[in-house]
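Fold this sequence, please.
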Amino acid sequence: MGLIDDLLAGVTGVTSNLWPQPAEKPQLINGRLRPCTGTPNCVCSEGDSPGGKVDPLTFSGTPDAAWSALKQTVADLGGTVRHESDGYLWTTFLIPLFGFTDDVEFRLDAGAKMIHVRSASRMGYSDLGVNKGRVEQLHSAFAKRCG
């Protein structure tokens, strides 16, 4: 590791301890992704999330192929799978500079050939568009993998 890497690692370690982040296990509510609470650090493709509406991922192949492509896309973008159940995936992404963790959830709607997505910061109010940008990256990478 170089000097800059060492300094960033030190800053990340110190700042992540200053703001402990509760690891709440996300979950579906009545078979749907939780709506955002109205803060700008959350976006969701499902429901009426005020100010944080994004499009779901869409696919044309089989649901199994799309689900597999989704998991590979998440891994390629640096996400970590935390929990998977029938048609539901909970992943986390680490924000390196400050050591913050964002929760990103997916719900498969096989009949509609779409995968709903919710991306939210665990703490704070604004994320300067990080979650929306992540969903845009997911859209692009998923489309390339499925297209």
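The radius of gyration is 16 Å. The chain is about 30% helix and 25% strand.
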